[in-house]
Amino acid sequence: MHAYEIAGANGLESWKSVERAKPEPGRGQVLVKLHAVSLNYRDLLIANGQYPFAVNFGSLIPVSDGAGEIVAVGEGVRHFKGGERVAALFSQSWLGGAQVSDMWHTALGGAIDGVLTEYQVFSEDGLVTVPDQLSYEQAATLPCAAVTAWNALYFGKPLVAGETVLTLGTGGVSVFAIQFARAAGARVIATSSSDAKLEKARALGAHETINYRQHPDWEKEVARLTDGLGVDHVVEVGGTGTLPRSIASTRPGGHIGLVGLLAQGEPIDPLAILGASCSVRGVAVGSREMFEAMNRVIALHRIEPVVDRVFGFDQASAALAYLADAGHVGKVVIRIA
Ligand SMILES: NC(=O)c1ccc[n+]([C@@H]2O[C@H](COP(=O)([O-])OP(=O)(O)OC[C@H]3O[C@@H](n4cnc5c(N)ncnc54)[C@H](OP(=O)(O)O)[C@@H]3O)[C@@H](O)[C@H]2O)c1
Predict the structure, then answer these.
(1) Rounded CA gap, 246 and 242, in Å?
(2) What stretches of the chain show up as alpha helix (H) in DSSP?
């Protein structure tokens, strides 16, 4: 079978096309023919040697997010049969409840082989059924970005209709956060570097938008839009470069789901958190239980994942370069077959 491997952190040159033996499903495992994968900022961090969690370089198959069809089941598999459409969990060991201690050690495309391959075997526990209305390209966007947005909104201070959610930029996580917050009956304020992207954010459901290039002090715009009160939730994808302004944008008792590290800045003054009386919670993708709950909402509300561009399987490195250019809105996808 065709696959890609990542031997080390060589930036956009990291992924090499290889031939590998097609795996066989063992006891409790299923064999999935992958039809599409989607890229995450994490894939760039790994390729650039900047990822803060376990990466098992060598002959690692990169990329965590994929969707495909079950083509064989091993002995003892109880929940799946051939022909079913599935997506793999980002962390193969976090099935439900509180975050498990080995979550990063079972993360696809980092600690263990990922999905940029024609076939992959998974434990049947490591898969979810994908909503019927989604194409494989759409379903492949869900495991990391969508589940992270879902976790950020529902597992710290659960989002309630009528509350206000602030999203930063228009990448994969943030676009799902706009869509989920809108579906929940929340008010959404979205930021972006670009007016054209903000127009797309409004089309997806953002009620108000702020261009953070035109308004570098964007927390003042958030204050203006919220009558000085601040927002109830921030889905924080920037990290130290944006967190002080996110804290200043949050109302007392509000919640910041700390997701990302897109923007570098100065160390955070903890007094700012105390002064804002908000909570800041680290978010680490999510569990199968979260993924399944999210899929029910995607199916019920006919939420369509936003696929910016689809590349061919032989264009994987070009897809990674396209993600690095950050011109996309939503997700960048590679179709495998
Ligand atoms: N903790 C977790 O479990 C977890 C899970 C998923 C992702 N993440 C992290 O979350 C972040 C987002 O991931 P992603 O895959 O959604 O990324 P992505 O799709 O590559 O998003 C890139 C977009 O982020 C926006 N951006 C960049 N710098 C910004 C800034 N200073 N302020 C506001 N927006 C900015 C830009 O959009 P505009 O041009 O519209 O501004 C850019 O196009 C990454 O740091 C990633 O590592 C963490």
Answers:
(1) 6
(2) 41-47, 136-139, 147-154, 172-183, 195-204, 218-225, 243-249, 270-276, 288-300, 316-325
C-alpha–C-alpha distance, residues 140 and 36, integer Å: 6
Question: Is the pTM for the entire model greater than 0.85?
Answer: yes
- What's the sign of the alpha-carbon dihedral 268, 274, 277, 283? positive
Task: Name the residue among 95, 86, 93 with its Cα closest to residue 111.
Answer: 93
pLDDT tens per residue across span 84-111: 999 999 999 999 999 999 999 999 999 9
- Measured by CA distance, the residue closest to atom 26 of ligand 1 is 169
Amino acid identity at 325: D
DSSP 117: B
- Please tell me what DSSP assigns to residue 144: I
Q: Which of 198, 237, 283 to mutate to test the pocket of ligand 1 (most atoms within 8 A of CB)?
A: 237
pLDDT over threshold 90, residue 168? yes
CA distance 215 to 301: 33
